[in-house]
Amino acid sequence: MNILLVYPEFPDTFWSFKHALKFIKKKSSSPPLGLLTIAAMLPCTTGKKLVDMNITTLKDNDIAWADMIFLSAMNVQRKSVDEVIQRVKAAGKPIIAGGPLFTMEKESFPEVDYLILNEGEITFPMFLQDLALGKPQRVYETSEYADIRVTPMPDWDLVDLTKYDSMSLQYTRGCPFNCDFCNVTSLLGHKMRIKSSKQFIDELDALYKRGWRRNVFVVDDNFIGNKRALKEDLLPALIEWRKGKKGCLFITEASVNLADDDELIKMMVEAGFTQVFIGIETPDEGSLAECGKSQNRNRDLVSNIKKLQQYGLQVMGGFIVGFDSDDESIFHRQVEFIQKSGIVTAMVGLLQAPTGTTLYQRMLREGRLKESDYSGDNVDGETNIVPVMDAGTLKHGYRAVLDGIYSTKAFTDRVITFLKTYRLPRRASTLEFQEVLALFRSIWVIGLISPERKYYWKLFFWSLFNDIRKFPLAITFSIYGYHFRKVNELHVSA
């Protein structure tokens, strides 16, 4: 049996980094970890092929080759999903689908032949067993959570590593917090499940032995959900593994209470963590209380962020406007906070209610859900809820926030604010051809032919004369800013 695994295309969004990736000749940020894990669970007699539509096109002969087509996707890939389903059904091939989109919206896909929902470590073997018996059911789902200590290593042989900017690994699933707009806990639960350090490092080693030296994204929704396991097991093992090696620096997600644990921060930096995404959401205490973001309340968020930067962690931040508690002052306060904090990669979205969340249920009870589907695009300027604030005022204010933080002047000022605070850790590094290429491309595209060139050169020379060690980072951020402005223009600029 031949299995074709298809990963649908991402639209041009904040996190796609499509405009930035062109500077280093990469096609996509990272490969589909879920599909690669499912591929590793297939019988060894199965022929298998991966088509990541963010890397290459899905061809008719790919579909013709396959006996079955596997799909996995998130909400933001919905348009591409619909197109793939139409093509596959026209070819008369069965579709097997799973992942967050299908798990949360199974009723929306009557064309899908078999739905493998929730966590694949539990439901996919059920499907394989029934398929072998010739009696597969249409829907496989479970309320149980998988023991990820038995999750197989992703099948990296299906991936052309040269096409990606980073690789993805997972250490934990679950999150202990209760943010009402987040669907992580409805999908993965509150209890933190962890892999052993050996398991994680075996996966990391498999990438390293294949020549991977670029970033590794640890895709945990809250990497620090079990601090004890980190400090006693994983981080000491990573620190030891890193000795004598270059590259493979880590990016992850964490809650802001990371700033409360100096030992943990130091260990993460020593282990090779360079960037951490934190859901800041809002500087407004009332809105934090409204959405159940208890871990962010009653603390000096700017000081917390700057502390992490001073220790050597670049903080990426998620922000939201449109809470019921928000008044019109929130737009200025968000801009002021972001600029003061020096969070260069700041994603600001309108409040949305994903299916299955506490917020979704509340909006449903209050009759405030719009008929439009949840897009999953954090910066498209749309929302599936009826806001308390006048909708026109909200959209206008939202546009003002994005223009306020991603105008060339504001963005450059914020990068400089960050670079002044940030302590660059000293570690062995590699200089790849792509980085040199990115420098010359940025000089041409942003520094010479773009109307943004004045601020490109301001940042260029500021970093050269103030701290040349941070010069590569300054160029990287110039490229990021270019991408963010392109996305801003696409979605929300008037």
Features:
single chain; 494 residues; alpha/beta; Rossmann fold; TIM Barrel; 3 domains; six-stranded parallel beta sheet; 43% helix
Q: Which consecutive residue ranges, at least 5 long each, have pLDDT under 50?
A: none
Average pLDDT works out at 95
Q: By helix and strand content, what is the structural category?
A: alpha/beta
Q: Give the strand order of the largest sheet, numbering strands 1, 2, ... along the chain.
A: 2-1-3-4-5-6
* Name of the CATH homologous superfamily of the largest domain: Aldolase class I
Number of domains: 3
- What share of residues is helical? 40-55%
Give the C-alpha Rg. 22 Å
How does this structure look, described?
The chain has 494 residues and is an alpha/beta fold. 43% of the residues lie in helices and 13% in strands. It has 19 helices and 14 strands. α5 (100-104) links the parallel β4 (95-98) and β5 (114-116).
List the helices and strands and how they pair.
Blueprint: E1 2-7, H1 18-21, H2 33-40, E2 47-52, H3 60-65, E3 68-72, H4 78-90, E4 95-98, H5 100-104, E5 114-116, H6 120-132, E6 139-140, E7 166-169, E8 172-173, H7 184-188, E9 193-194, H8 197-209, E10 215-218, H9 227-242, E11 250-253, H10 262-271, E12 273-281, H11 285-290, H12 301-311, E13 314-321, H13 330-341, E14 346-350, H14 358-365, H15 391-406, H16 408-421, H17 433-448, H18 453-466, H19 471-491
Parallel strand pairs: 1-2, 1-3, 3-4, 4-5, 5-6, 7-10, 10-11, 11-12, 12-13, 13-14
Antiparallel strand pairs: 8-9
In brief:
With 494 residues, the protein is of the alpha/beta class. It has helices at residues 18-21, 33-40, 60-65, 78-90, 100-104, 120-132, 184-188, 197-209, 227-242, 262-271, 285-290, 301-311, 330-341, 358-365, 391-406, 408-421, 433-448, 453-466, 471-491, and strands at 2-7, 47-52, 68-72, 95-98, 114-116, 139-140, 166-169, 172-173, 193-194, 215-218, 250-253, 273-281, 314-321, 346-350. 43% of the residues lie in helices and 13% in strands.
